[in-house]
């Protein structure tokens, strides 16, 4: 079975979207780990409720509860993880961890990269910046993770018309709905071995 780890820090709606597509048989994979720096976030509560093992990393000031990235890497390698999905994970991941899982870590960003990305561009900061600009479209981007925020090769994007929105909140809601479609689609492609990298471009068969 194709094994996935999902990293979260917030509500976990993308985690739920992936889990739903696994449960209904659309994606043949298993979520073997949820990783978080926020022990009490909704995503962690959900994972516990559905009996997915939760690993807390880089948090909590207690080694009893929290592990470091080296220990986490050992666990994930031992589990035979094929894909790590950052779904609202708000910590920067160390370079040596990224190198261990080269081309196997993806992130979902709630805007059309390479615009509206980079340090500090997360959550509502992104949608406010989009709203305050004059752009008429937004939408989620799924990309590989490298050592620079929101910089890795783009895997997939979907465009959302925001020409009539009245608030940043409205953009967030529209984009999030589309994230819940896009991210499971990309995870499915990975699980089927249909993601091909050629030079700087990524193709989904
Ligand atoms: C999403 O908007 C995602 O694009 C961003 O963080 C948010 C996570 O939402 N990286 P959720 O925790 O999956 O509900």
Structural class: alpha/beta
* Biggest beta sheet attributes: 8 strands, mixed
Strand order of the largest sheet: 4-3-2-1-5-6-8-9
- CA-CA gap between termini: 20 Å
How many strands in all?
Answer: 12
Q: What helical percentage do the residues reach?
A: 25-40%
Number of alpha- plus pi-helical segments: 6
Indicate the mean pLDDT.
96
Basic shape: globular
- Compute the CA-based radius of gyration: 16 Å
Strand content: 15-25%
Which parts are unreliable, with pLDDT below 50 for 5 consecutive residues or more? none
Bound molecules: 5-O-phosphono-beta-D-ribofuranosylamine
Following the backbone from N to C, one meets helices and strands in this order, namely EHEHEEHEHEHEEEEHEE
Structure description:
It is a single chain. With 205 residues, the protein is of the alpha/beta class. The chain contains six helices and twelve strands. The protein has an eight-stranded mixed sheet. Helix 1 packs parallel to helix 6 and helix 5 crosses helix 6. The longest helix has 24 residues. The radius of gyration is 16 Å and the shape is globular. The mean pLDDT is 96. It binds 5-O-phosphono-beta-D-ribofuranosylamine.
